[in-house]
Amino acid sequence: MKAYEKEAMEREKRRFLQVLYHDKKGGQMIYLRIKNEKDSEQRSYCDIEELAATGTDLDSCYVTVNTFKGYKRESSRIFNYTSIYIDIDCHRSDNPDTIETAKKRAMDILQEAYASGTLAIPTMITDTGRGFGLQYVLNKSIANTWRTETMIAFFKKVRKSIFEKYKETLCGDPMIEVDAAVLDDSRVCRLPGTYNVKAGKYCRLISVSGTYYELSELVQGCNLWDWKPEEEYKKVKEEKEKKKKEIASRPVVSFTEYRLPFLTTRLEQLEKLQEMRGEECTDSCREQLLFIAYSTLKQLDPTNAALRLQEMNMRFVDPLPQAELDHIIQETDQSVGIDHKGYYKLSNSYVIDMLALTDDEIKTLGIGQGLKRAAERKAVRDKKKETRKKIVELLMQADYLTYDEIAEATGVSRRTICAIAKEENLMRYSKAAQRQNHQKQKAEIIAYDSVRENVGQVSESANSATGSVCASFEGTSRALLSTPSVRGDGGEELDWYAWLATIASDNTIAQELLTLFRWSNWESSGFGIDLEEYLDQQMPEVMQYPDRLADLRTNVVKKFFGYYKEECAYLFGMFNVYLPGVWELFLNSGKGKSKKQCTYPVVDVKTETSEQREARIDRYLKNYMDMRFKVIEGTDEYRKRLDPDVLRMVKTVCMQVDRLKRDYFWIERKQIPTSDIKQCFKSLTYKDIVVICERITHQGTIRGAEKPFFYVLQSVWKYRHPDAAADQADRIQEQKKVTNKFNNFDQRKYDFDALGRLLEYTLF
Q: What is the per-residue pLDDT for 120?
């Protein structure tokens, strides 16, 4: 291949991608490369230039017509709909000359259709080697969301109608076929500038009209159906609404006038049952079946009811005697009801019971299905009520049971127990009670760089440091923090929290226990609930014998610090909390690193090197506690899928956002309060974080971001707020209009609108 030909195909490829994905709005383009029947490769791209750099090798290469969420090419993962693609095949023969002749005939037919206005001129036409690919690119792509369900349904209707139109236009030639696979949302099209192995030719872009279409324009341009102007459409719609109101205002018709479909179905079910049972019909079965059938026939066809019943009886292997048949007719004719006479109104449940229908027969006949489903739903509701009643009894009577033990006893999850306890106001733990009765107070974490090592701190400094990491409990009734025990003849409440707070001013051990309990209720701590349960059990005895307070502190350290050593190290290392007795026990247990509390050196942010900054961030991240990232980092699948550098950056930003002091940020020309940004980050689930990391990785632009913090901040905000993403797409589109010169066709050498040049290869 000559150099200028290769350069021309590269330009065709880029031109094709720029037109097809001109409004992709962040969706990912999927590239498919088929080496042979057993070997293929699939990749996703966010950048058009990166996709265009895939080369012009000797493998068959395709791209998706629409864009996707992620790297999987599945209809359920469509991000937005960008174009309507028509694939015309002319390869019903192995002879290359025959294929070329068929292609010429196909283009002659299409040229005539375009010239006469029967079909709209496509936005682009490609010569795929053994046929043609036609693209009707939308002016604005359609996002795949629940808000656009109606628009997507309209898009698919237009797409199918255009496919049928082309199929009808080209049906006269047996060598030409319109591929029905274009109706698949995950459809791929051959990429210009790449090699078609079967044809032995390169796919070429042969025409670009530069016209982007609205769906309404395609309906009119392709003459799919009569398109009414806006005013006429509104008038017809108003008339329909007026007619609906007139129908709604008519007097209500009695339901008895609409019983015919039900009765017809009932008779068909009885006849089918008669055929199914055959010789197995006993005397009682035949009598009951004919009795039900006669009441049905009297309502459907009163004149011929007796004759039709006689015919039905004769279809039995052993018919019912005539005397018994006459008895059924006579008894039914003489019946009188409240609103009926001469027949019985029989329910489905009566039919099921009288005919002793089995489950298989009920399922086959389709009778009484509504009744059966109602019974099943009622049984489920009753079971839930019984379980809830048992849970409430355990919450009220068995104070010694934990939530986990109640969950195991009742066979439900711990989350269900917590929800029921909250609804019934029977909560046992301080965190749940505090959320229910008080507005949750956020912990104001002190700046990492402001941590200092001080000697000889007094109790006031300990309270100050503890308050910086714990939600304040001042002014909160202890009765709301846990289920109180009861002592004494008068039944007064035992409030150990208030007791500790009272003696803490003179008792260092009580102050340390109080500080540990406050810190354990910080929402990132892991042992708050367990510690509170333990204190609820032990404190009643300690209050009677205060000299045992030191032993309780020792037991608390041994029981909980061994299981939660990382969090305890975080307490002593990151926050300057002065707990000398606890610190000494912690060191003696072998969990501490040294007899000196860990402190971080003071860092001048302005002069620190990039290596120092990375090391400082690593220290912070090591002690940053967020269960979402623990789940992600502890899952093998996520570790393989996610870029560790991107995950680390997102984790760093999540940590920094929680400590922001600014009032607002600017995102897509809008002033966003910092409180809203914090709430946005807090609302993310671990799955949301995985999706965000994957999107940032696929886009690949974070590597060149001058301020990665703002890059991640805006990415998260746009993920949660699609309006901001739409504003970004509009802004980029406005910039393209200024810088992109592809729409200037006056400077081009070739006339792309001339239909006679549709098969001429063009160089861009």
A: 93
Angle at 137 between CA 132 and CA 140, to 5 degrees: 170
Dmax over CA atoms of the chain, in Å, equals 112
Q: In angstroms, rounded to a whole number, what is the distance separating the alpha carbons of residues 64 and 601?
A: 54
- Strand-strand pairing, 60-64 and 124-127: unpaired
Q: 3-state class of 31 per DSSP? A: strand
Return the pLDDT at 605.
55
Which 8-state DSSP code applies to residue 466? H
Contact 665, 678 (CB under 8 A): no
Looking at residue 222, its pLDDT comes to 92
DSSP codes, 699-734 = H-GGGG-S-HHHHHHHHHHHHH-HHHHHHHHHHHHH
Q: Which residues contact 375 (CB under 8 A, 6 or more apart)?
A: none
Give the pLDDT score at 600: 46
What's the token pair of residue 683?
A: 């609302």
List of residues 6+ apart from 445 with CB closer than 8 A: 468, 469, 658, 659
Burial state string for 303-314 with b = 16 or more CB within 10 A and e = fewer than 16: eebbebbeebbe
Q: Report which of 91, 176, 167 is spatially closest to residue 129, judged by C-alpha positions.
A: 91
Buried b / exposed e over 403-421, threshold 16 CB at 10 Å, is: beebbeebebeeebbbebb
Distance (Å) of CA 515 to CA 485, 509, 544: 22, 10, 21
CA dihedral 612, 613, 618, 623 (to 10 degrees): 110
Q: Which pLDDT score, from 0 to 100, does residue 342 have?
A: 87
Q: At what angle do helices 508-520 and 459-469 cross, to 10 degrees?
A: 10
For residue 296, give both structure tokens.
């049905």
As a whole number of angstroms, the distance between CA 299 and CA 303 comes to: 10
Write down the residue that tokens 């010789």 correspond to. Answer: 279
Instruction: At 623, give phi and psi (nearest 5°).
Output: -105, 5
Q: Tokens at residue 467, please?
A: 């308050």
Write down the pLDDT at residue 15: 92
**Three-state SS annotation for 231-297:** HHHHHHHHHHHHHHHHHHHCCCCCHHHHCHHHHHHHHHHHHHHHHHHHHHCCHHHHHHHHHHHHHHH
> Which parts of the chain sit beneath pLDDT 50?
253, 255-258, 398, 431-432, 434-436, 438-494, 522-526, 563-566, 570, 573-577, 591-600, 739-764
Euclidean distance between CA atoms 748 and 5, whole angstroms: 18
- Tell me how far apart the alpha carbons of residues 13 and 18 are, in angstroms, rounded to a whole number: 9
Show Cβ contacts of residue 60 under 8 Å, excluding neighbours closer than 6 positions.
33, 34, 190, 194, 195, 196, 197, 198
Distance in Å from the first CA to the final CA of the chain: 17
Say whether 101 sits in a helix, a strand or coil: helix
Question: What are the angstrom distances between the C-alpha of 642 and each of 624, 647, 687, 696?
Answer: 20, 7, 12, 10
Name which of 334, 354, 356 is nearest 346 in CA terms: 354
Phi, then psi, of 135 in degrees rounded to 5 = -120, 125
**Residues 6+ positions from 165 with CB-CB distance below 8 Å:** 119, 222, 223, 224
